[in-house]
């Protein structure tokens, strides 16, 4: 038996963690390797990114943003009650809006414009780095292939996202004044949306994961998602360093 299979067999026999301990482990998994401590994010927050580096990040992160509603549609299709589907459908609407010219994707396009990137460039996706494409594909396919428990647990990186948004807004206002302030609307909106989304997802995961094996799968899903976000920044960071040579 492989190590993973052996661990699973042992986990399936172990007592489940108490709800409090499970929540503590989830929160720890979501913060230990969260991308707020990635060197690229640290440089962003201390004002050390060049205009090109920040534009490259905005363009590459747009690839992630535009796939969030796709992965949320895959999750919605797995949910088996109207209440749950309605809850998850709202996430798609948050990103896609109810009509043209609204929603999170539109706000991200406006962030790009505020930073001097036109929407055709963002939508054309020519500058999306291979590592970013793979990381985003990895996340979308994870949500396509895994059960709802793991797909929803993967979204729990959002537990830490609202704090990061606030840090980012302050950093942009202080260090990157060349970005027009109305471009920051995306981040402002995500503070409350992220808080609500992560609370809902946490309640689902705490309720669904009954056995120790399920609890461990949820924690592993969250670690995987941290790796997705980390790899995207690795790719963006590396591209900047190559350019400087
Ligand atoms: O800028 C960020 O650092 C950040 C992180 C995350 C995250 O932690 O997954 C999301 C977002 N932003 C975000 O804007 C967003 O809409 C979002 C959706 C999800 C998700 O997994 O469902 N994560 C995130």
UniProtKB/TrEMBL annotation:
InterPro entries: Haem_Oase-like_multi-hlx, PqqC, PqqC-like, Thiaminase-2/PQQC. Pfam families: TENA_THI-4 (PF03070). Pathway: Cofactor biosynthesis; thiamine diphosphate biosynthesis; Cofactor biosynthesis; pyrroloquinoline quinone biosynthesis. Its EC number is 1.3.3.11. It comes from the Bacteria. It catalyses: 6-(2-amino-2-carboxyethyl)-7,8-dioxo-1,2,3,4,7,8-hexahydroquinoline-2,4-dicarboxylate + 3 O2 = pyrroloquinoline quinone + 2 H2O2 + 2 H2O + H(+). Residues 25-234 form the Thiaminase-2/PQQC domain. SUPFAM superfamilies: Heme oxygenase-like. Keywords: Oxidoreductase, PQQ biosynthesis. Belongs to the PqqC family. PANTHER family: 4-AMINOBENZOATE SYNTHASE, PQQC-LIKE PROTEIN. Ring cyclization and eight-electron oxidation of 3a-(2-amino-2-carboxyethyl)-4,5-dioxo-4,5,6,7,8,9-hexahydroquinoline-7,9-dicarboxylic-acid to PQQ. This is Pyrroloquinoline-quinone synthase. The lineage of its organism: Bacteria, Bacillati, Actinomycetota, Actinomycetes, Kitasatosporales. The gene is pqqC_1.
